[in-house]
Amino acid sequence: MTNQVKIFDTTLRDGEQALLASLSAKEKLQIALALERLGVDIMEAGFPVSSPGDFNSVQMIAREVKNSIVCGLARAVEADIDACGNALKVADQFRIHTFLATSDIHIEHKLRKTRDQVIDMAVGAIKYARRYTDDVEFSCEDAGRTDIDYLCRVVEAAINAGANTINIPDTVGYTIPTEFGNIVTNLMNRVPNIDKATISVHCHNDLGLAVANSLAAVEQGARQVECTMNGIGERAGNTSLEEIAMILQTRESLLGLKSNINSTEIHRTSKLVSQLCNMPVQSNKAIVGTNAFSHSSGIHQDGVLKAQNTYEIMTPESVGINKNNLNMTSRSGRHVIKHRLEELGYKPEDYDLEAVYAAFLELADKKGQVYDYDLEALLFFDQQKHDSAHYQLKYLHATSGREIVPSATVTLQVGEEEVTKTAIGNGPVDAAFNAIMEVLGHQDLVVVDFKLDSKGEGADALAQVGVIAEYKGRRFHGIGLATDIVEAGVKGLIFVLNNTYIADQIDQQKNQQERVAGV
Ligand SMILES: CC(=O)SCCNC(=O)CCNC(=O)[C@H](O)C(C)(C)COP(=O)(O)OP(=O)(O)OC[C@H]1O[C@@H](n2cnc3c(N)ncnc32)[C@H](O)[C@@H]1OP(=O)(O)O
Ligand SMILES: CC(C)C(=O)C(=O)O
C-alpha cells in the first residue's frame, strides 16, 4: 500500500458553509490559488447546484487551478451532478463528489427512505457521475453512526458502480479514535473490492477529536484526509489541514507516511483564510496560532537559547514563519519592501510595488514601525482594490466626545459623481454609516455585524473592522483597515458596497442573458 496520504481540502465547501457571510468569487479564487501553492492534492471548490454564484466560482477555480484536482459536491440526484459536471468540465481533470447518508437516523428521519433505496440511489448517482468523469468520490454521510454491516454493503456497491474514492465521514464528530480506526479496519478486511478504491476520511470536531480520528484512520489504511485550513467548517469545524500535515511531516519516521503539502506555505495560507473568512485563529491554536512558536517562561527560554529542539518539535520556518530582523519605517525604500515580501512568499508579479509602497509610506508616517502583518494587509487591500472602484471614499470627518452629538460628513465617489452627506448617530461610526446610507438613498442594505480588531503591536496598531451587511436577501462581508477606527469601519462598509455593486452587475447580466435566450 502507498505511503502517500492525499490531502483533500474542503475549506471552500465545508469551511465556507460555516461563515456568516459567503465569500465572493474573487475571494474564493484567491484562497484556491493559495491552496494550490500549498500543494493540496484535491480541492473541493463548492456545491455548484446550491446557487449561480457557487456554480460560477467553482467554474472559475476549475479554469484557473492547474496543479490540484478541483472537485465539486453533489447530492445523489441528477440535477446536482449535472451542475457539478457542467461547472467543472472546463478543467482537463476534475472530480465529482456525490454523497448520501447511510446511518439509520438520517435514512429514516431525513431522507425518509429504506436502506435498500439508499443503495439504489447511491449506485445510480455514481453511475450518472461517471458519465462526466472517471474520478468519482462517494461519501457515506454519517458513516460514524452507521451500522457496520450495512456500511460494508454500501461501500462494496459504490465501488462496483464506479466510485474510486470512498469517503467515510464522521459527520457529527461523534466517534473516538479507536472506534473510528476500527471502522476503517473493518472496511479494509470485509469489503471484497476495497483494493479498487482509496479510503478517505472526513471528520468533524464536535468533541475535539477530528484530527485524532483522521490520524487513527490513516494508521489503519485510509489514504485521503479531508480537511480545512484553520479547521473551519460546520459547527466546531473539520480536521485542521495544518495539523494533519504537520503530524505526517514531524512524525514521519514513526508513521511512515507523507503528504504533498509544502509546509512553508502554511502560515501564509492560514492568514489569508482567516482574514478573508473573517474567522480569527485562537492564539494557542496548534501550528498557526500566534503563540504556537512563542516561549514565555524563563526555563523554556533558557532551554531554547541553548538548543532550539529542547522545546520546539518543529521550527517556525518549517511552517513559513520567518524570523525578521529588518525594521520597516518611513525611511525604508522599495528594495526592503520587495525583499520582505519575497521572504513572506510573495512574488513580484503578485502585487503592484508602486501602489504597495505608496500605501506603506502613508502607514509608516502614521505609525512609525510597520510590521509583517501590516505589510501583508496592505498587499491584501491592494489586491482587493482592483474591482472595487465604483464606491470610493474621498473625504471623512467625524466628531464625537462627551456631551456632543456625534456627527460625520462623508464624501463618496459613486461612479463618476461625488456625493457629500452629513448625519448624526449614536457614535462617530454610526454617524458615518448613516451619512453613507444617505448617499445610497435607499434602505436595501442593513448592517448586521461590526467587528473591531486591532492588528499589529501597541497603541498605534491598525484597526481592522469586519462589516457584515444584508442586501437583497444575501449577506456580504467587507474588511476595512486604517489607523483610525471610524475610517476602518467606513472602508469596511465601502468594501461591502462594492461587492453588492458587483453582485447587482452579475444579476443584471444573467437576467439579460436569460431574456436573450428566451427563458
Ligand atoms: C454533511 C454536509 O455538509 S452536506 C452539505 C451541506 N451543504 C449544504 O447544504 C449547502 C448547500 N445547500 C443548498 O444550497 C440547498 O440545501 C440545496 C440546493 C442543496 C437544496 O435545497 P432545497 O432543494 O431547497 O432542499 P433543502 O435544503 O431544504 O432540503 C434538502 C433536501 O435534499 C435531500 N437530501 C439531503 N441529502 C441528500 C443527498 N445526499 N442526496 C439526495 N437528497 C438529499 C433532503 O432529504 C431534502 O429532501 P426533501 O426536500 O425531499 O425533504
Ligand atoms: C458531504 C460530506 C462529506 C460531509 O460534509 C459530511 O459528512 O460531513
UniProtKB/TrEMBL annotation:
Q: Which residues form the Pyruvate carboxyltransferase domain?
A: 5-267
- Kindly give the PROSITE patterns that the UniProt entry links to this protein: AIPM_HOMOCIT_SYNTH_1 (PS00815), AIPM_HOMOCIT_SYNTH_2 (PS00816), PYR_CT (PS50991)
InterPro entries per UniProt: 2-IPM_HCS-like, 2-isopropylmalate_synth_dimer, AIPM/Hcit_synth_CS, Aldolase_TIM, LeuA/HCS_post-cat, LeuA_allosteric_dom_sf, LeuA_bact_synth, PYR_CT
Top enzyme category = transferase
GO-annotated cellular components: cytosol
Q: From the UniProt record, which GO molecular function terms apply?
A: 2-isopropylmalate synthase activity; acetyl-CoA C-acetyltransferase activity; manganese ion binding
Q: Which reaction does it catalyse?
A: 3-methyl-2-oxobutanoate + acetyl-CoA + H2O = (2S)-2-isopropylmalate + CoA + H(+)
Location of the region described as Regulatory domain in the Swiss-Prot/TrEMBL record: 392-519
Tell me the domain of life: Bacteria
Q: From the UniProt record, give one GO term of the biological process aspect.
A: L-leucine biosynthetic process
Question: Keywords for this entry?
Answer: Amino-acid biosynthesis, Branched-chain amino acid biosynthesis, Cytoplasm, Leucine biosynthesis, Manganese, Metal-binding, Transferase
Residues recorded as binding Mn(2+), renumbered to this chain, are D14, H202, H204, N238
**Looking at the keywords, is Cytoplasm present?**
yes
The Swiss-Prot or TrEMBL record lists the needed cofactor(s) as: Mn(2+)
Annotated pathway: Amino-acid biosynthesis; L-leucine biosynthesis; L-leucine from 3-methyl-2-oxobutanoate: step 1/4
SUPFAM superfamilies for this protein: 2-isopropylmalate synthase LeuA, allosteric (dimerisation) domain (SSF110921), Aldolase (SSF51569)
Q: Does the keyword Ubl conjugation apply?
A: no
Enzyme Commission code: 2.3.3.13
Q: Which NCBIfam families match?
A: leuA_bact, PRK00915.1-1, PRK00915.1-3
Q: How does it assemble?
A: Homodimer.
Family of the protein in this entry: Belongs to the alpha-IPM synthase/homocitrate synthase family. LeuA type 1 subfamily.
- Reported function: Catalyzes the condensation of the acetyl group of acetyl-CoA with 3-methyl-2-oxobutanoate (2-ketoisovalerate) to form 3-carboxy-3-hydroxy-4-methylpentanoate (2-isopropylmalate).
Q: What is this protein's name? A: 2-isopropylmalate synthase
Source organism of this protein record: Alteromonas confluentis
Highest lineage ranks of the organism?
Answer: Bacteria, Pseudomonadati, Pseudomonadota, Gammaproteobacteria, Alteromonadales
Gene that encodes the chain: leuA
